[in-house]
Please model this.
Amino acid sequence: MLIYVTHPCAVAGVFVLALDGMPVEAFERLRDSLPNIAEVASRGSWGVMRAVDPPITVPAWASMFTGRDPGELGIYGFRHLDRSSRRGYVVTSRDLRERYVWERRGLRSIVIGLPPGYPPRPYGLWVSDFLTPAGRPWTYPPELASEIGRYVFDIEYRTDRKEEAFKALVEMTELRFRAAERLLERGWDVFVLHEIGTDRAHHLFQRFWDVEHPQYVPGNPHEDKIPRYYRLVDELAGRLLKRLPEGTEVLVISDHGNQAQRGVLALNQLLAEWGFLRFRREPSRGEDVDAVVDWERSAAVAWGGYYARIFINAGGEEAVDLKRELRRRLSVLKAPWGYIRSAVFEPSELYRAVRGDAPDLMAYFDSLRVRPVQTVGWESPWLEGNDRGPDDSLHSFNGFYAATWGDARRRDLHALDVAGFLERAL
Model:
């Protein structure tokens, strides 16, 4: 149980608009049609928010607002592997044991949707995140849910039904901002509004908007979807900003960027071809590796997503040799369009400490432009598309921030400096 101790905030308050997955390139390209976010940028500072390793929603926001890197937090993604049972589990708010910067200061807070946000964090007013299971309590205190009313946590974004998805995206976002409007009059020193919709817009429509995407076609019917959505977010944000108490500082920030997907690599297929991974039976096409892996006879198993986590099934010098060999083999790969380079790290090379259920190796393929997936049973390690449904966007390190304070000459901010940057305004 978190202890709520109130201390006065030095300013009228700080309002944080947390736009998941917004790349700095989106602001640079659309700035003229985003007057409210542009106004925040013009009043203080703005630029690239360099994401943590890995650039994923969980653990990114937790690192940004605690100032602790993922290794220190012991959080490396949405799911972790329990080595003792060899079973995966979903990371929740209970796995975040560090306090946010406003909690450390004992400030009054209202937080909407910040991941990992389920179960609701018992501090201030809290609305759970997009990972909330259906039918479970989603606010703290519980009675806050009836005050908010209808609310949508997430949408189906890996789909070919683009028009239907866009309508759902708009509805979800309007409901989230409506909830923020309803809570804005409550007492607070820090107000955090997280919107997952910006990330979903890129996963839905990146190839229709990004001229560098291999499948981009000029004049396609969905080319305006991302600009339309950002204009909606800017308009809704403007309504909130107009209602903020005089003297309130504002931070608009994302946790990572988004970029065009160049290819898809079934990494476990490759590990099996190299002899590092063995199966209990012949896998069916597109089957998850967890269902068929023979751990006793396998030297390495990989999990996919936006980056690869590789788990070594050995110890001592054998594990050292295995990691060295895998790093050598993965450093350069031959893709269907040519050779690509990979960056492969041990967690200790990226983090100040390594806690919890960490992988043995972490791999970024082609500067995160190639998606590693963990399914097996394919004819080739190189797939034509995402194995879990249409999704043509991958994460990047180039997030975005704009604040009403800071040095206008500074054009970048590292994720691990966000907590300190925020504290300067409190």
